[in-house]
Amino acid sequence: MKPPLVPLATLLGRELRNVKVEKPFVKFGQAALAKKGEDYFLIKPDCERVPGNPETSFSVFAIFDGHNGISAAIFAKENLLGNVLSAIPQGINREEWLQALPRALVAGFVKTDIEFQQKGMYSFLFHHTCILFYFITLSFVLMTGETSGTTVTFVVIDEWTVTVASVGDSRCILDTQGGVVSLLTVDHRLEENAEERERVTASGGEVGRLNVFGGNEVGPLRCWPGGLCLSRSIGDTDVGEFIVPIPHVKQVKLSNSGGRLVIASDGIWDALSSDMAAKSCRGLPAELAAKLVVKEALRSRGLKDDTTCLVVDIIPSDQPVLPSTPMKKQNALSSFLFGKRSQTSTNKTKNKLSAVGVVEELFEEGSAILAERLGKDFPMNTNSGLFKCAVCQVDQPPAEGLTVNSGPFFSPASKPWEGPFLCTNCRKKKDAMEGKSLRSAVLLTNLEQRMVCDRYLVS
Ligand SMILES: [Zn+2]
Asked: Which domains does the chain have, with CATH numbers?
């Protein structure tokens, strides 16, 4: 039997005529099993672009997979959304809001990381008065988890537009009506991401495996100092600053036939491929689907890690559940018409699936260079004569921060800054992330390094 061509024609017609399609329903389910208790998640189905106006609603779903403690995961869960929203200009329309979102996500991730770092450093410096206290404090910091870090996969759904920002290795996949599964995130694992290995090495880090007795190398590739297997995260204040919080961001627009997102920590993805996860729960309501994905991961690998899964269905309002039957031929045609292959040259991994389907790709950028992510056009506050920092949004006199095209005075031995205004604090962070400044925390002795390494042997 020939596949139905009418829905595609309708879809095409609507796209071409730009007919307003009714808002979709967003239905979701969550399931989790804890091994270490370091996974956290955020579900905010009722956010509003304009407070008090339900017409401007959008939803946020996020997973935070913490390591070496829970502080960073909790801090990010509590602060990231607010920091992202504060970086979006006020009084703009929906289209402008969606366009501003990728940049605001970058600013919000970096701001959250700086705030967490400062929180840890204050307690560190407060106690750090002599060498004895230094070691006592380091132990204290390690025990209290102030040096913890977290992956973040942060999803914003506004009608049919899905924007995903991620650091680390918690993935978000999209299963469309065509039965094609695409990856909306990039894995920031040193083992699998050659481009990130190059970046970390160029910024002053060393990438290698752990040496155990007898000189044998074991485990995945890690970066030193610190011994982390991830190349991006929020937190990890005891690790080199080249472990950056700058997220990969991808924005897609679904067709009005909708789609399903599966957002999960690596406890799922170490056990299941994207296809397996999508197939294991097709045709089931979101709540049940999330439980089934976790069960399937457990069946194939056992409970080796924290395992958290969010399933989010974006469904046409006239259609209460997602149909489970793939429409392969229709999908192939529509991906030719709408989809384009992932164009970014950065952060390709062997696991990356080509982003085709009944999906329009609006934006994708994964660069770890702040100037490439923030643009240049952050305006001066004309009332006060102050510049607003593009990352943390504080106002500062131009002379104290870093303005567009600041020369070597601000960044010795580097090309002029081509990004927007940054305050003194955020400029320091930018330089550190690019390997242009040494942090005291990086100057660890061999003993301290080994103490740090020991923690990662268990993670
Ligand atoms: Zn700032």
From this structure: 6-369 (3.60.40.10), 373-433 (no CATH)
Identify the CA nearest to 305 among candidates 47, 15, 33: 33
Spatial distance between the Cα atoms of 148 and 71, rounded to a whole number of angstroms: 6
Q: What are phi and psi of 19, to 5 degrees?
A: -70, 140
CB 427 within 8 A of CB 437: no
Distance 396 CA to ligand 1 centre (A): 9
Res 326 pLDDT > 70: no
Distance CA 367, CA 70 (A): 27
On whether the CB atoms of residues 190 and 231 are closer than 8 A, the answer is yes
Residue 181: alpha-carbon gap to chain centroid: 19
pLDDT of residue 337: 36
CA 114 to centroid of ligand 1, rounded, Å: 9
Distance 430 CA to ligand 1 centre (A): 10
Q: Which residues surround ligand 1, an ion (CB under 5 A)?
A: 389, 391-392, 423, 426
Distance 203 CA to ligand 1 centre (A): 22
The pairing of beta strand 149-158 with beta strand 234-235: antiparallel
Could you tell me the distance, in angstroms and rounded to a whole number, from the CA of residue 426 to the centre of ligand 1? 4
Task: Say if residues 199 and 416 touch (Cβ distance below 8 Å).
Answer: no
Query: What spacing in Å lies between the alpha carbon of 331 and ligand 1's midpoint?
Result: 45
Question: Global pTM?
Answer: 0.82
pLDDT at residue 233, as a whole number: 98
Backbone angles phi, psi at 49, to 5 degrees: -65, -45
Cα of 389 vs centre of ligand 1, distance in Å, is 5
pLDDT more than 70, % of the chain: 72
Burial of residue 450 (CB within 10 Å: 0-12, 13-18, 19+) is: exposed
Q: How many A from CA of 405 to the centre of ligand 1?
A: 17
Cα–ligand 1 centroid distance for 400 (angstroms): 11
Do residues 200 and 223 make contact, with C-beta atoms less than 8 angstroms apart? yes
Euclidean distance between CA atoms 161 and 300, whole angstroms = 33
